[in-house]
């Protein structure tokens, strides 16, 4: 699951504060305006926070993300129309599904996670991005016309991501009564903790870092004490800076950068989320299939790759990627996210390039815009997963 650095209209107003606001201040977090929310960019060292998640355990305040509960007899049918992935894959309560929500043109309105909340398939929960809140809710309601459902946003809830190779172990130390539940959680499965912890507590084995861990939802009133409890058990607070470098190493999209309403799922490595084997008529399907076919015929199809810079410099969003520069076969792409990787000690990027790109092509980036092209290595994403480099040196 992703969220975004893009600023929506709320960012021109006084930033909103999450239930962890005082916890961030008490932990010496440096707060910035992020999609209209006051959130920590770091707590002193972005690198240390990144390394804590890669090697031990860290936690991120993700309460700015939007939690929406949907109930009603037609909820499943509504989701089948709304989402490009197939909620029929959710066969047991707690199971989660990652999906794009497309517009009529086949572009990505948002990427989100949907959970099945009951065995009767009448209750689901959607966790979506902060900066796309207004257009997401508008799309939910637009598609809901004619369906017997109730859509309820849950702004009274808080959310904390606990990530890293020791995240589960340390969370179980902090919450011993959760130990059995945590041990039984498989990836992309959640569990209601109401019987153990009380109303509104929910834990899911999901995240945005490429490491093991969970995301915990709770009522806002319970948030500060939970934060302190985890901190006391050696889980390091981590900010938006580390979250970005971690997700980039893991090859995970950031909405508004690596994808948006003009980008097809095929162009941002989300083709695997498209359920096209049956004739289900989800929003954007016809345009998606038609444009994909046309792009292949025209040889204009694009794909997403990773770029590694092994010399000095930093790859940044918006830089042009040049393939076979100066030849009859010259083509271009664009960097959609770029950063310095603390784990790899080199600059990395996510880029959108022609789908015809092959291993034999010569790929370069003009780092300073002065015609001095530097070679970059093209890699299949991710760069890092579960603390390990995913490509040969």
From TrEMBL:
GO molecular function annotation: aminomethyltransferase activity; methyltransferase activity; transaminase activity
Record-linked PANTHER family: AMINOMETHYLTRANSFERASE, AMINOMETHYLTRANSFERASE, MITOCHONDRIAL
Comp. bias regions, Low complexity: 1-14
Enzyme Commission number, as recorded: 2.1.2.10
GO biological process: glycine decarboxylation via glycine cleavage system; methylation
Residue ranges annotated for the GCVT N-terminal domain, each copy included: 20-277
Superkingdom as given in the UniProt entry: Bacteria
Annotated segments matching region Disordered: 1-21
Key words of the record: Aminotransferase, Methyltransferase, Transferase
Taxonomic placement: Bacteria, Pseudomonadati, Pseudomonadota, Gammaproteobacteria, Moraxellales
Reactions this protein catalyses: N(6)-[(R)-S(8)-aminomethyldihydrolipoyl]-L-lysyl-[protein] + (6S)-5,6,7,8-tetrahydrofolate = N(6)-[(R)-dihydrolipoyl]-L-lysyl-[protein] + (6R)-5,10-methylene-5,6,7,8-tetrahydrofolate + NH4(+)
Pfam families the record matches: GCV_T, GCV_T_C
Protein name according to UniProt: Aminomethyltransferase
Catalytic class of the enzyme: transferase
Aminomethyltransferase C-terminal domain boundaries: 303-384
